[in-house]
Amino acid sequence: MKKMEKKYIPLAQFFENSKQNTFTLTYQEIQNIMGHELPNAAFLNLSWWKKTKAPSTHYFAWTNYNYQVIHVNLGISVTFSCSQEEDMPNQKPKNAYIIRPIEANDARGFINLQEEILAQTNFGYFTPDEQGLTVQQVRKNITDWRKQKTSTVLLCIYNGQFAGYAQLVGNEASKIKHIAGVRVAVLEPFQKQGLATALLAESEKWAHVNNISRLEANVMVHNEPALTLFKKVDFTFEGKREKAFLLDDQFIDEMQFSKII
After folding, report:
1. 22 has which bridge partners?
2. Is the terminal CB of the chain with fewer CB neighbours within 10 Å at N or C?
3. Domains parsed from the chain with CATH numbers
4. Full-prediction pTM beyond 0.85?
């Protein structure tokens, strides 16, 4: 497999996972997949998309998987195809997603994703008006996570859209540095497609690489989808915290799970 710049690897993973012959991605969707901005040349020059020779390597992201660029609307969208058809249907990709660590360029998208999820469910710790995150705060957190290697956010990008995330929150204290809490959230339009399960699987891989051997999860007692999910992936029920949350003037218990990996 021909190598490319590191920032294009998530895009290559997207094409590897794609099962559709021809589809169109907007520039923003491509940047969402990458977690980085495209270079200025991609916005200004059709030739950037048509290059297939050294010293450039960005095109390996799609040519490694037999895709080629068949149409470019500069600054707006790009159509890729691995078929011999000459037509250029303006189709969106179907059921292609990647899961990758958050990048600094994702800060605004991640905040928007959390706000959308909070507006759709009451299973989170915060109400929509309590989150109060800023782009600067998220970017600082990302920098700290990379230094500490005990916490991270894994983003699920589905057909170029922010679909969900898994957040792992670890510890710096040596006696509990092997433990991280994990929570998973997926936007309603992308649910029931296995994304939460995939996010947990990638969380376990990340934890293993970073010497975390125990994952913990806390779930509200009425959050049936999450309870089913953690049981499905072999988390062990450890106990219940009574009156852990106050929701609409009613106390809600919390279920505690863990998994040794």
Report:
1. 81
2. N
3. 6-81 (no CATH), 97-260 (3.40.630.30)
4. yes
